[in-house]
Amino acid sequence: MTYHVIIEKRAEKFIRKQTKENQDRLITAIYKLPFVGDIKPMEGKGGYYRLRVGDFRVIYTVEREIVTVRVMEAGNRGDVYK
């Protein structure tokens, strides 16, 4: 099954501020979603998942009816959950 990936503006802005190496790591990990990587469902937020990429976290949801992975947030591990 093929998934369409949408990166929200806020997450895209964070990724663009990173070094080229970190941008590549994040983008590569995002495009392997929704089932590959260090993924855990988020507690208290039904339908949201957390992808760990080193010290970075990517928050996303899978919209199955249109087969879309929507990246909601990306950030450093201490800041992304705020």
Structural write-up:
This protein is of the alpha+beta class. The protein has one domain (4-76): 2-Layer Sandwich (YaeB-like fold). 23% of the residues lie in helices and 38% in strands. It contains two helices and five strands. A five-stranded mixed sheet has the order 1-5-4-3-2. A hairpin with a 4-residue loop joins strand 4 and strand 5 (68-76). The longest helix has 11 residues, at 20-30. The N and C termini lie far apart (33 Å).
Quick overview of this protein structure:
The chain has 82 residues and is of the alpha+beta class. The termini are far apart.
Summary keywords:
globular, YaeB-like fold, 38% strand, 82 residues, alpha+beta, 23% helix, 2 helices, five-stranded mixed beta sheet
Low-confidence stretches: none
H/E element order: EHHEEEE
CATH superfamily: RelE-like
CATH overall fold name: YaeB-like fold
The CATH architecture assignment turns out to be 2-Layer Sandwich
Estimate the strand proportion: 35-45%
Give the beta-strand count. Answer: 5
Mean of all residue-level pLDDT scores: 85
User: What is the tally of helical segments?
Assistant: 2
Based on Cα principal axes, name the global outline: globular
Could you give a short account of the major beta sheet?
Answer: 5 strands, mixed
